[in-house]
Amino acid sequence: MRVKRYDEVIPKTQREVIATRYKRITSAINQEFWDSHSDTDNSLYVGSYGRNTAISTSDIDILISLPSAIFDNINRLQGNSQSRLLQAVRGAIKGTYPNSDIRADGQIVKVNFYDGIAFEVLPAFKSWDGTFVYPDSNMGGNWMSTNPKAEQEALREKNASSNGLLISTCRHMRYIRDNYFKSYTLSGIVIDSFVYNAMGDWKFVKDGAGASLGAYEQRLLDYYKEHCSFWRIIAMKAPGSNDEIDVQKSLECLGKVLEYMAE
What we know:
CATH class of the largest domain: Alpha Beta
Distance between the termini: 7 Å
Radius of gyration: 20 Å
Number of helices: 9
CATH architecture of the largest domain: 2-Layer Sandwich
Order of helices and strands: HEHEHHEEEEEHHHHEEH
Structural class: alpha+beta
Shape: globular
CATH topology of the largest domain: Beta Polymerase, domain 2
Number of strands: 9
């Protein structure tokens, strides 16, 4: 199944609904933690939607930056302070969406809406180097770090140089996963990181000016076969941030998707 251009895969009406809810959630958290009514400050889209590779609205990730003083106060608490932070963020959102299913879950606060759109809100604290520290309430609680802006910028640059091939490939692989391998696990960050590293200098060109039909898809499959055993030992790296990605649960489905593309 050959890669094609995927433009405007999420309808404008849905994107408008997402933007409205994004602003309301941002405003609620800013009022609670920043004493501000801004519906844009301190927040950004992350995950597949933030990287512009999403094709569905079932998982809209946003990161909300909180004041550093809160981080200092939380670290003085005994017990699972990360869980308490998530509950505080949940409470702030619940005031705006009292009838929605809102729950703290590990590292995020998940907001499930009646129409199938779901937000995963990641509270975080900005570090001096541009990275963000966020809570993980699992295993007694700890802190983890992420750099979504670096990942987004890396994908943006490579997508531009490939004339849109990178984003289209990432969306194409999600389409195949969701329609033909739904019972398997394949995370969005694994797809995006794989394509970023595997595609090399390939790009969209004018009809008739490119390589033979299927050559690009075969290139991706060959790259997977060459590196699969390596990834079982050493983690894949995310573009831009170089964060380590656990691919163990995604490798089988990744191979199936690539084989389907190359057929």
